Amino acid sequence: EALSKTPNGSESCPISQLPNELLLRIFSYLKQRKVSPQTVYPIVDADLLRASLVCKAWHNPAICVFYEVVQLRTVHSIQLFHRTLQKYPHIRKMVRVLVFPARIGVRCPDALLDTFAEIVNLVENLDSLDVTCPVRKSGLEGELRHILPIAEGRHPDLKRLTIYANSKVPAEFPASLATYSRLIKLSLVGVFLSKPILADTMPILPELLNFSSTAGNAASQMDSWLLACPKLGCLTLGKGEAPPLSLLTKGNIVLLIFTQRTFDPSVATWLPECTSVHCVVISWAIFSNIDHKMFPPSLHLIQITVCPRDRMSLETFKARLGENVALRGLQFWVIGNNKWPVENEEALKDACKTSGVLMAPPLLSASFPKTSE
Hints:
Layout: E1 4-5, E2 11-12, H1 20-28, H2 46-52, H3 56-66, E3 69-71, H4 75-87, E4 97-99, H5 110-122, E5 128-133, E6 135-138, E7 143-146, E8 160-165, E9 185-189, E10 210-214, H6 218-221, H7 223-227, E11 234-237, H8 246-250, E12 255-258, H9 267-270, E13 279-283, H10 284-287, E14 301-306, H11 314-321, E15 329-335, H12 340-343, H13 345-354, E16 358-359, E17 363-365
Parallel strand pairs: 3-4, 4-5, 5-8, 8-9, 9-10, 10-11, 11-12, 12-13, 13-14, 14-15, 15-16, 15-17
Antiparallel strand pairs: 1-2, 6-7
């Protein structure tokens, strides 16, 4: 009964007559893989390409989904995609998410950086962009500046931007960033700024919810500017930053993600001052070395990242958990093959129950968790 007669008497399959909107939704489930610049596999499964060859009705929706998220992980794939955009202009409007390889603190050939910029400006309206930005001289005085490879007027609806700096030399921040007023997430990796960024010298981002700075000094140099962003509530800090920040002590940061794996004694001096923080993500090395009284006073949730080399013990966990009356929930995020939290899950839950804390089942991951929206 799967086949029906068409007006001309031929047989057709009803699934080939589904509306494009429904096909787009179905095909979107075929391509879901984690977007990461360090990935070692293509972002799109071959299933989408197979679907595009089933019939004429499936071809266009499958191709639209195929090009919606483009992750370029090799020089060859970058050059190939560049030629594809030049040869087939209709593809340019399909790309919504564009991810280039991460080049952090490593010089990238100028010709390749220019190709990055050409691709970014060939596609028509991105929602999300991960790209390596060069440090180059600009202006009359020849000051060093991080160059954002987006032409004026392109991608006005950009919502998520990750910038990788290919140089550790301190440079000025790209002032053009302020034109993307719809940004909700900004991540700066390996970015060193030569001057503080102030709200009266660069317009704030009114919709910014999530800011991340790792392997650089951007959060420290942008502290007062970030404090002026009214909706900012999630902050990710990595090694190289130097809290305390006024953003943490005077702002409205609710979620603090601290990616530094090793313990730094200074953490115990500034973490209690983060009065607005309700949730923290910290490593086992940090959690196991600070007393529960050193956590933010309004802390409700803790997520503890566990690495393969971490040596964990139930006694240390109980001692550090203490009797924090504000704490309501806890979860381990296990990175790699450390099996201790899973093997001791019941004992950990009992310890949490004694302290009045609800423990969620451990999460397993191959890499450090990405910041959610």
